[in-house]
Each structure stands twice: as C-alpha cells, then as structure tokens.
C-alpha cells in the first residue's frame, strides 16, 4: 500500500500545478474570451470566429485538465481516510494512487509545452538512409512505431505521401498527425534513428546497422499567416502508384510542388519539394501540398525565433554514423536516447509505440531552454 509521503507528494504536485498553470487567471480569461463570442456579427468572419472559439477551447482544456487532477487527488486522500475505518481495501487505495499520479505526470508533461507551435498538429516525415533494403525496412518499422503511438494517444493519422522500397519497407513517408499537442510531444523525435540487429536480409546472419531520419514540423491551419510567393512555385502531376483500382496508373492525381525558397534572414536559397498522393482527387492533393508548404515555411520562421528549434535544425546531419539521436539495439535488448541518456530494455514495447519515456525525458531536459 502507498505511504503517507506518497499521498503528500500527489497533493503538493497538484497544488504546484494550480500555481504553474495559473488556473484562477485562466478562468477569468475564459470568461472574457467567451464574452467576445457573443458580440453582434461574431460569425460574419468565419475564419476569425473559429480562431476565437479555438482560443476559448484551448484555455478551457487547461482548466478541465487541472480539475481532473484535483478530483483524483481528493479521491485518493478520501480513500486514505476511509482505509482507517476499513471502508476500502489496500488494493483500492493503490488503484486510486495510480490514477492520480498518472494524471499528475501527464499534466506536468503538458505544462512543459508552452511554445507557440506546441499545441499544433504535426507533419512527420521519415527518410531511409543508405543501405538499400535493410534501411528501407527500418524506415517502415519507424513508420509503424509512430502510427501505433498516435493510435494509442487518440490522434488521427493520414499518409500524405508514401514511396515503397525496392524489395521491402519504404523509401520515404510523410504523415499528418492531428490532435492537441502532437507537435509538442513529437518535436524531440527530429534526427537520425539508428538500428542494430541481425539482418533477416543477410544470408550469413550478420549484424547490420541501418539509419533513417525523422523530420517533424508543425502542421499549420488557416489561422496562421504565412507568406507564399506564387512566382516561386511550380507544379507537376504524376500517376499515383499502388495496388489495384481503376484510377491507379491511369489518372495523374499525384502532385509535385516545387518552391524556390529564399531565406529572408540569410539570403540563402533552396528548393522545397513536396509530393502528395493522399487522395485520387488532384485538386485535393494540391490543397494538401499547399498546406504542407505553409507548414514548412512556418517552421522555418519558428527556427529564427526559437533557439531550440534552431538547434534541432542544426542537428539534421547526414544520415550516417555519429549523427544519431537514438539507437535501437535489438540483440542487446536496448533502446537508448543519446541526448538524454534515457534507455529501456523493452524493445518490443518501443517498436509498438511505447515512446512516452523518451518524449518525457527530452521535454524535461530541453523544454526549459526554449523559454
């Protein structure tokens, strides 16, 4: 059974969250922002109205999150008192403690996500490294890992572009992961991921090392102002690949957007290339590609304003030795993050999407340097 010290810890952390989140002030803010939604002609500008409603909703989420934690902490204290009168069992108290501490830790983690982009949806792109089939298979394993993580957390995942590997796996994939704080949680996944295992594709059963890179950017919506110069854009269309279907390889529904980006701060130029085959509707794919372009341009702006984002970008090195952020060593039953030194022996769990330990360790170490 839990100790009185564990109960005190939950109560103290709950009280600290009320201070850190400034719940009293947020309640005043919600009332003020809700009054604005009652103004005459509020819905005349739909885009502005939706942005205002989102503002109210986001503030309310923090209040509701704190209230849930406070309720669980109070229930735990009550159960502890009832135990003295033999009205509850030790098992019931331990269960109440587990619920309360999980809720406290979850809100503490979310409290670290205070940057402008943290609450946004995100675009996650995976590219395989050199090494042919082995690295392509590794890229597909990472894709599954992130999809399982998103599924567990109730996020919506859509595949914007996917290029299959030559024999197995994938060469590249771009996924949209939609849900509150998905960018904030996944931004630390930026970088090179290294796999060490006995290769199923090697007849001699040799130990092989493979690399894949992960890039995460915020997925912006229409409320975010991003400047795009039409003269710098060009479009190509192509036939989408895939299994079966009358449209496949007959209708040019896939789109390729090239944007000649010029950095307004440094004057450096680069070509941004986006491919979208998400639907069989070419106009819809163009719309999705434009949304991704706006997300990329928004992220580039963030990099100039946020020191940590600049560090992340600087860390995107060649996909090879010495640049990895995390190693997955299957034979030794070990996954280790080289930035935080957090590691686990639950390799199968990690590949099934259990990466919250890595996410929390990254945020605890680096979120403070972003403020």
UniProtKB/TrEMBL annotation:
PTM note: Methylated by PrmC. Methylation increases the termination efficiency of RF2.
Residue ranges annotated for the Prokaryotic-type class I peptide chain release factors domain, each copy included: 239-255
Predominant place of localization: cytoplasm
Keywords: Cytoplasm, Methylation, Protein biosynthesis
Gene Ontology molecular function: translation release factor activity, codon specific
GO cellular component: cytoplasm
Keyword Oxidoreductase found: no
InterPro entries, A to Z: PCRF, Pep_chain_release_fac_I, Pep_chain_release_fac_I_sf, PrfB
Gene3D superfamilies cross-referenced by the UniProt entry: 3.30.160.20, 3.30.70.1660, Release factor (1.20.58.410)
Location within or outside the cell: Cytoplasm
Modified residues (N5-methylglutamine): 246
SMART domains: PCRF
Keyword Protein biosynthesis recorded: yes
Task of the protein: Peptide chain release factor 2 directs the termination of translation in response to the peptide chain termination codons UGA and UAA.
Family statement drawn from the similarity comment of this UniProt entry: Belongs to the prokaryotic/mitochondrial release factor family.
Name of the molecule in the record: Peptide chain release factor 2
Natural source organism: Phocaeicola sartorii
Name of the coding gene: prfB
């Amino acid at each position: 059974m839990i100790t009185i010290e564990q109960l005190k810890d939950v109560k103290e952390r709950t009280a600290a969250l009320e201070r850190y989140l400034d719940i009293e002030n947020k309640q005043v803010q919600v009332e003020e922002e809700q009054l604005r939604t009652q103004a005459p002609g509020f819905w005349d500008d739909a885009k502005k109205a939706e942005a205002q409603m989102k503002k109210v909703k986001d503030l309310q989420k923090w209040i509701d999150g704190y209230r849930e934690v406070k309720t669980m902490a109070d229930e735990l204290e009550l159960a502890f008192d009832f135990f003295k009168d033999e009205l509850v069992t030790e098992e019931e108290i331990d269960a109440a403690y587990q619920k309360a501490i999980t809720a406290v830790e979850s809100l503490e983690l979310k409290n670290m996500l205070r940057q402008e982009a943290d609450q946004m949806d995100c675009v996650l792109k995976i590219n395989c490294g050199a090494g042919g089939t082995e690295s392509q298979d590794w890229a597909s394993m990472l894709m599954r890992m992130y999809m399982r993580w998103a599924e567990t957390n109730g996020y919506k995942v859509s595949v914007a572009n996917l290029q299959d590997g030559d024999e197995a796996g994938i060469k590249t994939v771009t996924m949209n992961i939609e849900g509150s704080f998905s960018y904030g949680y996944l931004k630390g996944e930026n970088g090179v991921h290294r796999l060490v295992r006995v290769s199923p594709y090697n007849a001699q059963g040799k130990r092989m090392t493979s690399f894949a890179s992960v890039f995460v950017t915020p997925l912006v919506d229409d409320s975010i102002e991003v400047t795009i110069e039409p003269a710098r854009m060009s479009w190509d269309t192509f036939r989408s690949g895939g299994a079966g279907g009358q449209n496949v390889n007959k209708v040019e529904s896939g789109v390729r957007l090239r944007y000649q980006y010029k950095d307004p701060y440094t004057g450096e130029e680069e070509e941004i290339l986006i491919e979208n085959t998400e639907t069989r509707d070419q106009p819809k794919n163009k719309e999705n590609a434009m949304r991704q372009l706006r997300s990329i341009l928004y992220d580039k702006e963030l990099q100039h304003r946020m020191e940590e984002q600049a560090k992340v970008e600087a860390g995107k090195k060649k996909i090879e030795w010495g640049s990895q952020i995390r190693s997955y060593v299957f034979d030794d039953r070990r996954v280790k993050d080289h930035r935080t030194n957090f590691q686990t022996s639950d390799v199968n769990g990690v590949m099934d999407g259990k990466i919250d330990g890595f996410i929390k360790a990254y945020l605890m170490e680096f979120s403070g340097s972003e403020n």
